[in-house]
Structure prediction request, 357 residues.
Amino acid sequence: MQDNSPAQPAVDLRGVVKRFGTMTAVDHLDLTIRSGEFFTMLGASGCGKTTTLRLIAGFELPTEGQILISGQDVSDIPAYQRPVHTVFQSYALFPHLTILDNVAFPLRVRRLPRAEQRARAMAALEMVQMGRYGDRKPSQLSGGQQQRVALARALVNEPTVLLLDEPLGALDLKLRKEMQLELKDMQRRLGITFVFVTHDQEEALTLSDRIALMQGGRIVQLDTPANLYNAPQSLYAAEFIGETNLIPARMVSADHGSSVVEALGQTYRAEGTTASAGAAVTLALRPERVRREPAGTGPVGELVEIDFIGTDLRLTYRMADGSKVIVRQQNSGGIPPAIGERMPLGFETDSLRIFTS
Ligand code: ATP
Prediction:
């Protein structure tokens, strides 16, 4: 008979609170992480993401609430017996052991037969394309290679859940980008649940199936990367994820779903929070959704700054009221616009969102 019941969640946090003295680091968190997903906790420093990860790992115990891993309450299970493994930013490899022995270490602790230790450590090294380096010492490897070894050591015990605490934070940008792709590929191949912590929104968008954006120990939005980017539910989310134009506006008429606002001397229809007529609100709009329209009727801006960002041009226009609007357009290789140009700007209204300011 086919089993149509939803898969058991990998991790379930129910009403979890963590206080350090009077400081609440994690504030009544309810969170279900699905089996096999790449789940990211994202937020500014101090938002509680590392504490949440440490609670799942068992390095901290909750002040209140319950944590389940694969349906089992782990409250009384010490960290080393939980079916999870944590990879930290610092690789924490043993300098005096070879790479192979480093990876085999968790199996040695479990007193598995030596031949099995070697075979499984070797297989884990192969998984991260480090099979050739088994005889070396950590100091003979680059940072990226050492982090691959740390990953292999995490995988060798075949954890149900891999917890990753800013694992790419110590790598330079190019290597970081390469490792991001490798991590994502590895997660797909192995089907292990990854719970990833980062403060880097671009990294979160690239890697994740779902993202929990955190602030003050709470989740402010839990969504797919596309939804978080295209339909932020708060001003905080709009500002934290990607670049956003925030345009002062005034409510003209509120309607269900779509309202009319006045901004930069024009009226626009937009979605989002409603407020009473006349109230000051903020319009949020991504720079790639603003167009330069020479024959348009939109508000006119004066180009005051041009930034070349490889594939894109980032153009900053000063509007009549002194506010700035950023336009991002593809760098098509032609002559770029000149500083000082005056240009009507068209807003793609389907992506305009209203937030109460
Ligand atoms: P970062 O990106 O800087 O690591 P974070 O979002 O991971 O930040 P946490 O490390 O979870 O944040 O910390 C959340 C809050 O709890 C912070 O205000 C921090 O100072 C506090 N905190 C964390 N650990 C402790 C501790 N052991 N004792 C006291 N306060 C702590």
In short: The radius of gyration is 25 Å. Residues 11-235 form a domain with the Rossmann fold fold (CATH 3.40.50.300). The first helix runs from residue 49 to 57.
